[in-house]
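Supplementary Text 2. Reproducibility record for the structural model of the 414-residue chain.

All settings were left at their defaults, and a single model was retained for analysis rather than an ensemble. We include the record here because the model underlies the residue-level annotations in Supplementary Table 4.
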Amino acid sequence: MPAGGRPAALLRTTVDEEAGERFRGSPTGRGHVKAKGPPLCVVREYRTKLIRTHPLTRLPGPPRMHMSDLVFVATSQDALFQETRGNLARLGYTNCARFSSGRAAAEFIKYNPSRIIIVDTEVEDLSLPEFVTALREVRTSEFLHILVISSERTEEFVLSMISAGCSGLVLRPYNLASLKNHMLQSEKLDHFQDGERETIDLADTMITQGRFEDAIGDLTMVVSHQEDLASKYFFQGCQLLVEKKWSEAILAFNQSLSRNQTFIKAYEGLARAYLGKNDTDRYRFYLQKAAEEYAKLNNFAKVKKIFVEIVKYDVNAPNPYNTLGIRLRQEKQYKEAIQAYFQAIELSPKDENIHYNMAKAYFCDNQPEKSLECIRLALSLAPEHIEALKMFRLLTGVSWDDDPRAVFNPQKGK
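Retained model, structure tokens:
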């Protein structure tokens, strides 16, 4: 690990056919790629062991290309990479880079802009659902196209990939037309994002120029339009899942997610515009909306940054993860609600209401002992919390004043 704690950016894994060894480095064979992070090094890889060798020198060659021009292929199988690279070349995608390690790929994508990554059959150190989930988690603030190629076609596998967040699923054996269709779908979403991004960038310029009303008009239009479409595509995706139309469901969810991320940026822009007008109430309102949407995407860093800004103006502002947890519990997604409450506590560890809400989620999830632990934490922070006192008695059969150390009584806490 280099100084500063940030890992070296790892680029393409190329195949040295003579030595049979894999190297990660900067030259792609068709141009040089400049990655963010500390100076690049060549790293020789033997399965999962990484051995650092010599610093990479910049060699003369063709003009540098943008990172977003590359199609990344993640697979541990050399033959599959060669096949996929050949098919992409036939479709006109000539700049192709490879990872064999899922963790290395996720680490690289975390620091470098990317448009599409193809996951072919397997990577060395993660299952496919784990790998797709890892990619989504490192790029939560923007949409990443993740196309999965696999010969596995069980319903359980397909649903696991949809849940992880793949953008498309190509089942082997496949023809070139199928791959072409998925790549075209990715390009269509890119064009949509570019258009909306241009509107938001223009609004940012207006804010810088002090044209707050003009910016508010444009951003409000983006929010109202994209929020409605995001909701529409989400429910459409759910219906398609019920009908077992997997490809159509994936496309609908992708449309929903890309629009979600667009109107989040618009919320942040609206907040800045209203702050420019000294309208702190609406500034806080739109920051809160942005934070709640980032919470849904589990982007903790963004939520924390926005929440810190909100509490400067309102110490009683709702915790975005607590809001999300309440919604998930009401929808009977108890385990997901519990995870949201954990994040809420990271932001507000001394908020007794969050501990109480987590207790209710644990109770609904048939985990009464953990529910009681949370109730104790809530009452240690607020001994007069009426609802927590009622729940303590429900779980133990005694009052908090009589015995705060009482254990769960299964006869009482049913």
